[in-house]
Automatic annotation (TrEMBL):
Keyword Heme in record: no
Binding annotation for glutathione: W93, R125, V126, T127, V128
Source lineage: Bacteria, Bacillati, Actinomycetota, Actinomycetes, Propionibacteriales
Keywords: Transferase
Marked site (Lowers pKa of active site Cys) residue numbers: Y248, Y291
GO CC annotations, alphabetized: cytoplasm
Region (Disordered) location: 1-45
GO molecular function: glutathione transferase activity
Species of origin: Kribbella sindirgiensis
Protein name: Glutathione S-transferase family protein
Length: 315
């Protein structure tokens, strides 16, 4: 990533403001489009096994959510997976982990090629996760909050028999938690790390740790955020927590305390890590190389720290 990559997302007061999602198509079982067609007049693409490709980075917490949900629901043979190199260059996410440096299904070297095929005028930051239609090579969606919800609600016909119910019947409490956690924690660590003024950093830091304190207290008498069953909101918090000590504590200056110094949050995060679909999808090497190598303005030397010890997650 070039040092100036986030200039368009930095306000005049030094606060980092995440760009909106450009592609917000939905893959829906209510689509009026026939197989191979799409989208319909309402922008809904048909649910069609084998048609769509989920492009992710193992380093990215937003993409990590979709990897976990896809695995938990048993959709591995229904929606294919493409993994980009954790280290981006000036053209963004690249398929250099694949033979001949091209995605074998989409035939492209950079995810930006799919973005520009869909919108030749696009000049924003290319993000993962993104779902790409393999029949046209166009991006269906990069709307990461909606992607995982739709995997739960629109692809039910193809869920494995014992798939978890990630969205409760009454969503009000979960949706409120999702919003608070996104604002102060998921996005809050980035607002700390990419702040360009002391005031903006201080505000983000205070909000982050105030929310973590609330969550620490919430978990003192329950297994997961909503009780005895993990839900979508737990997945969204987990992908930030699993990166906290390895990246956010030092690299993003979120250093009031480590995750390991929150007794309840640390026990909760390790509990999730040791469940099928969670820890097995974590790649600390790719996580650290992405953040420490690509954020030149924050870590100009590009040195990647050796710690912390990942075995702490399974002890």
């Amino acid at each position: 990533m070039a040092p100036g990559q986030f200039v368009q997302e930095t306000s005049s007061t030094g606060e980092w403001k995440r760009q909106g999602n450009r592609f917000t198509g939905r893959i829906s079982r209510d689509s009026a489009a026939a197989p191979g067609e799409g989208p319909d007049a309402q922008g809904r693409w048909p649910v069609e096994p084998g048609r769509y490709r989920l492009v992710v980075s193992l380093a990215c917490p937003w993409a990590h959510r979709s990897i976990i949900v896809r695995r938990l629901l048993g959709l591995e043979d229904v929606i294919s997976l493409a993994v980009v190199d954790p280290v981006r260059d000036e053209r963004g996410w690249r398929f250099t982990l694949d033979p001949e440096d091209r995605d074998p299904v989409l035939g492209i070297a950079y995810l930006s090629e799919a973005y520009l095929r869909t919108d030749p005028t696009y000049d924003g930051r290319v993000t993962v996760p993104a779902i790409v239609d393999t029949t046209t090579g166009e991006v269906v969606t990069n709307d990461y909050p909606q992607i995982t919800l739709d995997l739960s609600t629109e692809w039910t016909e193809f869920h494995r028999a014992d798939a978890p119910q990630l969205i409760p019947a009454d969503r009000a409490e979960m949706d409120a938690l999702i919003e608070e956690i996104y604002r102060d924690v998921n996005n809050g660590v980035y607002r700390c790390g990419f702040a360009t003024s002391q005031e903006a950093y201080d505000a983000a830091y205070d909000a982050l740790f105030a929310r973590l304190d609330v969550l620490e207290d919430r978990l003192k008498d329950r297994t997961y955020l909503l009780g005895d069953t993990f839900r979508e909101v737990d997945i969204r918090l987990f992908t930030t927590l699993v990166r906290f000590d390895a990246v956010y504590h030092g690299h993003f200056k979120c250093n009031r305390q480590k995750l390991t110094e929150f007794p309840n949050l640390w026990a909760y995060a390790r509990r999730l890590y040791q469940l099928p679909g969670f820890g097995e999808t974590v790649d600390f090497d790719q996580i650290k190389r992405h953040y420490y190598v690509t954020h030149h303005s924050i870590n100009p030397t590009g040195i990647v720290p050796k710690g912390p010890d990942p075995l702490a997650w399974i002890r």
